[in-house]
Amino acid sequence: MFTETNGVIATINKGQTVVTAIQEVGSNSVKGELSDEKLQESYLHVTCRNLRSSDSGKYFCGAHVIGSDGRVERLNEMVTVKVKLPTFEDLVNVIQKLLIQANDDREIQQDNTQNIKSIQNELRNNQDNVIKMYKDLDNHEQNFIRIKKDLDSNQQNIKIINQDLDNQKQNIIRINTNMDSKEQEFTKFNKDLDSKQQNIRIDKDLNATKHNITRINKDIDSKQQDIISIKQDLESSKKDFNEHRQNISIFKDMLDTVIYNLSSSLTDVKQELTNGNANKIRSFYIFYSSYIF
Q1: Which residues have a Cβ under 8 Å from the Cβ of 78 and sit 6 or more positions away?
Q2: DSSP string covering 233-267, please?
Q3: Strand partners, 74
């Protein structure tokens, strides 16, 4: 926006705020916005106050736009402004407005006077409160001094307590050391106890083994008795066998004798048969039959 006498008044570009070109137009008097939305209008609005006759003239507003089809266009509008001198009626209207404004200001002044009185009363009350607060501060200061003394005393007590704590820590360290030693002794005792228990189990195993050995010895004694009995039976059987063998030998000798005698007799019988002596053969048969059986 610009004039033919004063030049550019204000400009607005896409992505930028409003820029004013002359000091007479303040930033509060210039408003504007550019939008790409079809339903939202773009505008640049300038408000001028207290115009002079030199402000009369032509005012131009130009805009560079891009249409929906991509074409670039420049739009221009112009308005003629003529500033006139005020008339008597204008002065009367202004005086009336000033009187109304004066009455309003008088009422405002009365309200302000009342407010000032109220503020003065509040100040007096606040002053009393401040005096009271000072007294309270003095009391608090005395309390603070007493508290500080108590803190100093407590710090001394804390130092004593810290010393006691250090002593207790040393005692705890010594107790922990003793506990470690006791724990080692307890571990050694447990190992010794395990060894003793192992020895007790070995003794039990030895007792069981001794009992088994005793039972085995008894079994051996019993087996030895059985062996002795078997040996005795074998000796008896051997003796009986020897007796039977002797009897068999005697029987064999007798049998050999009988066979020899029988052979001799058979020879004699054969001879007698040859000689025809039957009675003698019959008596021989009877004799040997009774001898054999």
Answers
A1: 58, 59, 60, 61
A2: HHHHHHHHHHHHHHHHHHHHHHHHHHHHHHHHHHH
A3: 64
Contacts of residue 260, Cβ cutoff 8 Å, sequence gap at least 6: none
271 to 260, 263, 264, 282, 288: CA distances (angstroms)? 17, 12, 11, 14, 17
Residues in the chain: 293
Taking Cα atoms as reference points, which of 75, 49, 53 lies closest to residue 64? 75
Give the pTM.
0.32
Tokens of 245: 């063998």
Answer yes or no: is pLDDT of 19 > 70: no
Q: What is d(CA 258, CA 252) in angstroms, rounded to the nearest whole number? A: 9
| Closest among 106, 112, 9, 20 to 61, alpha carbons compared | 9
Mean pLDDT, all residues of the chain? 77
Three-state SS at 65: strand
Short-list 12, 25, 18, CA closest to 63? 12
Q: What's the distance, Cα to Cα, between the start and end of the chain in Å? A: 182
Residue 65 near residue 54, CB atoms below 8 Å: no
Distance CA 1, CA 13 (A): 12
Say if CB 77 and CB 59 are below 8 A apart: no
Can you read off the two tokens belonging to residue 254?
């007798």
- The predicted-structure confidence for 103-151, as pLDDT tens digits, reads as follows 888 888 898 888 898 888 888 888 888 888 888 888 888 888 888 888 8
**How many C-beta atoms lie closer than 10 Å to residue 250's C-beta?**
10
* Residue 150 to residue 277: CA distance in whole angstroms: 175
